[in-house]
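Sample entry (209 residues):
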Amino acid sequence: MKFYTSIGPNPRVVKMFAAERGIELPSETVDLRGGDNRKPPYTNVNAFGQMPALELDSGVIVTEITAICEYLDETQPGISLIGSTAEERSQTRRWLRWADLNICEPIGHGFRFAEGLPLFKERIRCLPEAADGFKAIAQDNIVFLDGNLADNEYLTGDKVTLADIHLFCFMDFGRNRGQSLNDAYTNVGRWIAAMEARPSAVTSALDAA
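Predicted structure, serialized as tokens:
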């Protein structure tokens, strides 16, 4: 396998997931700031130019971070971070979907349309006038998240799953780029502290900035 990686929260999700699972990923770094993800040879791997991508030994390309993590989870030995039963997998996927739509995507749009605008304005359609609204949507939904974490150590209960890793990588990215966490959200603050103390969070952060 070869993992095409770069800066940013999306590649970090896969790297943190792989670290938690004890999976070593041979990697090739693509210069996202320099725009190398938007031209050959990388667009021969992923025509959309999005990061990251996983090239399998068969030559098949897997894109989208959830698909990459699920492939690794299903094909590599070790304890699943998605779930060992249908019920566990349903809860992981439920919270992953909720977190992605309601917090991660708004954080990403809020960054790309504001602090990240100089980098993204020539690459994708940007809506600078919508940046504050997307940031507010993320904060609104963090209120709901804080309530859920009042009775749970992690999103689905008492153990870390892909949903926690995905959400943490995006929230950690956002809070260091103009989308700080309100101190009133004490349950979320406790959860973030627990996640960032994990060795996988430390190693995956080394080149994620």
